[in-house]
Design a protein that fits this description.
The structure is a homodimer. Chain A is an alpha+beta fold. The first copy, chain A, has 3 domains: about 1-195 and about 365-454, Aminopeptidase (3-Layer(aba) Sandwich), CATH 3.40.630; about 195-250 and about 295-365, Alpha-Beta Plaits (2-Layer Sandwich), CATH 3.30.70.360; about 255-290, no CATH class. Chain A contains 13 helices and 18 strands. The first copy, chain A, has a 6-stranded mixed beta sheet, sandwiched between helices. The interface between A and B is large, with 103 and 104 residues.
Chain lengths: ~450, ~450
């Protein structure tokens, strides 16, 4: 490993410069106007894989392209599938960014750019680690496959089909994903649980145009009032989701899990201060950590209706809409919940308006067996690179495709987050510690060795 | 009157061209960027009054300017105060306008422009009628005072002060306002009741930035969820406003009023079809006409929160806000309701967010005595100009200052609407029938004569 680590040390600045190149491509998957940039980002990743000696291809799909790469065959060695994504979240509100989102710059030891941590920076650590092996040792100790998609932020629709149609090509012993956070600065973690997700838009159509609220108010249904009624009816005062049967399939936290979580050095006050809120909130009987990692939730992500300019405009809006999302936990079925949710919305709908529920994307949650040999191998690699044994955590976010990969390929998934919780993954001023980027590369290089030893 | 009517007939096209001039000025009072246009529109009105022989001035206020004009003194004749406004509603959504809102054009006998009916077109009828008297008869039979403001659409704040400080200057026997609708095409009406209004913005501040709903969902309060809870709590399923004591001061409709309203040829089906909705809605026990004219209401005018772009963005928004308005009926006090409303919002607020209630504008409602001699005079003038006796109606909209004028000047108010209900007063494609514009001028000219005879 000595030569490899020396190589990584020497190439630090070159790795950073290459990451900057990819960060400069505004590959926002939700924005149809960015299709060209999405293509460019995928091509960049494929070119990079080819440049370090991989077989690599850009696969055209019905959605955004998928990059697939394979390392030179190592007979008898285990096969690892690295999953990541080159697409990024939208940037608005743009005016809150201190530096432009697609002009990466380093301030106070952090790389600032959209995609820095989610997921371009984290994903590339597994590419640079392979480069280090190949350039310094002339070989890799394992077989690596890369599956890097461009639709993670919008539901991975094309990838699901691709995986279903290519289970032999993608066959592997374990899956490695770095798209989450450490437990805290310098405290690595292995994430053994992910929440699932179900995203919707609810559109309430009232009159065929905005109407004068004096002439019509009180005698026709206001679509924004109707929307408020639906939204309020979806969630209880304490945060309990009101969709019938929503909690039926939730696997309760074990006593061991609750104890492990309680023992983690998690400072609730600091957590709330970081979010800029004064109070905790959520389901009674659970800690903040349990709520965010292991309990399903309902959130409103956006509201749009009527007049949003300066001052007053006394209208009944023609329509009102909300973007909403449920976070699901392992064993909850997005399909079952979809039906119950739609039925409830219909029940909550007021007369005189048309209510439409538009499904956007959904994915189940995931739990990884804690006794997997790959978890043990990852534990050793992380301890080596961070100088500290990882803690076992769960993650409140969703990586929709990981559950699919796990199911289709029948392989364990290693969720190794190199980022931090306050990296602003979906917010303005997204960032990634330079040190985390380097530690990620070193941990990844060591991981290939530990897995080879299994 | 023969010479006057001939004059009006001959000048029809010139009147229309002058109205177009004023409509071309985008005097949107809610938009701070339009202050220059507001000033230009006020100056236009003042210049017009001066051109036909009035004393006229543009009064600078803390808000938008007020135009005040006086006709040459007629000893022993009654004095009529004409109230109107030269400001207009915002135009958005702009993309729904068939022709640009400030480029008036005539299609199918209608003038299309923002302000065509509300209130530039209606207000000018009383200026052109005076011009007809002065140019053809060399005199007016009454003393006319003009009070034309630029803040009607945003609450008439400056005007209230102006009226309070100038009650002698504005002293009059009756007030004439044309800022409402006929009962239907060719069926004139005298409006004896106006609803009041109270406008607010509710702002819910959550985290200090948009947060990843995976990392934070379920453990901090979502401000859009908190807003939905407040909005839903303000109004019952049947449209009953939930503010404690809201209905305490409401004067019930008399049996006579209910009978008069029931006898009006009002086609509910046509009314709903016109609004593009399938169903009636509102307080049980009232007809649609009673609800819109004589019952107080709650409406959401606009909603803003989080991500409103294409696709999904899984965030907890940093803030959520709603513009709302209550329509009040005569005898309800905006001040009493203000306090009870704020108390209720506070009670409905969830923990973990800051809720701010921003009052925008408020005004009480108005009822005019049906046995006033001025009502009788107006009735005759309308029957002469329209060939049909007016019906007595109420109006669901608010003209905040009319109640103030009535109280301060102790004069009856004549609400003579020349427009139509489907003139799109606060919507895209606002319009005014050319024929209604001309009938308004003729009715106004006759009104001065009928009032002189009292």
């Amino acid at each position: 490993m000595g030569a490899i680590e020396t190589y990584v040390d020497e190439k630090c600045e070159a790795f950073l410069e290459e990451l900057f190149e990819l960060l400069r491509i505004p590959s926002v998957s939700a924005d149809p106007d960015r299709a060209g940039d999405i293509g460019a980002a995928g091509q960049w990743v494929s070119d990079k894989l080819a440049a370090i000696g991989m077989k690599s291809e850009v696969v055209v799909t019905k959605g955004h392209p998928i990059v697939y790469g394979e390392s030179p065959k190592v007979e008898g060695a285990p096969t690892v599938l690295v999953y990541g994504h080159y697409d990024v979240q939208p940037v608005d509100p743009l005016e809150l960014w201190i530096s432009p989102p697609f002009e990466p710059e380093i301030r106070e030891g952090r790389i600032f750019a959209r995609g820095a941590t989610d997921d371009k920076g984290q994903m590339l650590t597994h590419v640079f680690s392979a480069q280090a092996w190949l350039q310094s040792e002339g070989r890799l100790p394992v077989n690596l496959k890369y599956l890097i998609e461009g639709e993670e932020e919008v539901g991975s629709a094309a990838l699901s089909d691709f995986v279903a149609e290519n289970t032999e090509k993608l066959a592997c012993d374990c899956i490695v994903v770095s798209d989450s956070a450490q437990f805290g600065p310098g405290q690595p973690a292995i994430t053994y649980g992910l929440r699932g997700i179900a995203c919707y838009e609810i559109v309430v159509q009232g009159p065929n145009r905005d109407l004068h609220s004096g002439s019509f108010g009180g005698s026709i249904t206001n679509p924004a009032v109707a929307l408020s009624r639906i939204l309020n009816g979806l969630v209880g005062e304490g945060g309990q989701v009101q969709v019938p049967g929503f909690y039926d399939d939730v696997v309760p936290l074990t006593e061991l899990e609750r104890r492990q979580m309680a023992e983690l050095p998690f400072d609730e006050k600091q957590y709330f201060r970081q979010a800029g809120v004064s109070d905790s909130w959520g389901e009674a009987g659970y800690t903040a950590l349990e709520r965010r990692w292991a309990r399903p939730t309902f959130d409103i992500n956006g509201l749009t209706s009527g007049y949003q300019g300066t001052g007053a405009k006394t209208i009944i809006p023609g329509r009102a809409s909300a973007k909403i999302s449920f976070r699901l936990v392992p064993n909850q079925s997005p399909e079952t919940i979809d039906k119950a949710f739609r039925d409830l919305v219909e029940k909550l709908a007021m007369p005189g308006v048309k209510v439409e529920v538009r499904g956007m994307h959904g994915a189940p949650g995931l739990l990884v067996p804690l006794d997997s040999p790959y978890v043990v191998a990852a534990s050793k690699a992380l301890e080596h690179a961070f100088g500290k044994a990882p803690v076992m955590t769960r993650e409140g976010g969703s990586i929709p495709v990981v559950a699919t990969l796990h199911r289709q390929l029948k392989a364990d998934a290693l969720l190794l987050g190199w980022g931090q919780d306050d990296d602003n993954a979906h917010s303005p001023n997204e960032r990634f510690l330079v040190e985390d980027f380097y530690r990620g590369i070193r941990a990844s290089a060591r991981l290939w060795e530990e897995i080879a030893r299994i």
